[in-house]
Amino acid sequence: MPAADAWESFFGPRGHNGYPVLRDGRVVGLLLRRRLQGAEASRQPCVIWSEPLSPSQVLLAGMSARHAAGRMAQLGFSRLPVVDGPDSMRLIGVVSLRDLLANSHVLLHEETVRERLR
């Protein structure tokens, strides 16, 4: 897909910050907004601007939220693809830092209320 089409379809003014790049059904990289900015009008393939990902840089189904957060911190990414296994690298989802933090807000609120009641 040309970079201009990817920008218009997926990123744009209020799009996401990153998308997995697939080749033959396998995750091979991550296309990040910050890397694609400046190439919004380019007809070159968007894969040129993607970050390559190896099996050690993706999340596997069944990994804990703690493990996912650690891997994101280690790589400096706020989202990572989830694959069904390191050999197949078949995409089954994407987890973002926002996804990991969503329930923390509820737990913090419950803990704050509990402390006030003591």
TrEMBL record:
<protein>
    <recommendedName>
        <fullName>CBS domain-containing protein</fullName>
    </recommendedName>
</protein>
<keyword id="KW-0129">CBS domain</keyword>
<dbReference type="InterPro" id="IPR000644">
    <property type="entry name" value="CBS_dom"/>
</dbReference>
<dbReference type="Pfam" id="PF00571">
    <property type="entry name" value="CBS"/>
</dbReference>
<feature type="domain" description="CBS">
    <location>
        <begin position="52"/>
        <end position="111"/>
    </location>
</feature>
<dbReference type="InterPro" id="IPR046342">
    <property type="entry name" value="CBS_dom_sf"/>
</dbReference>
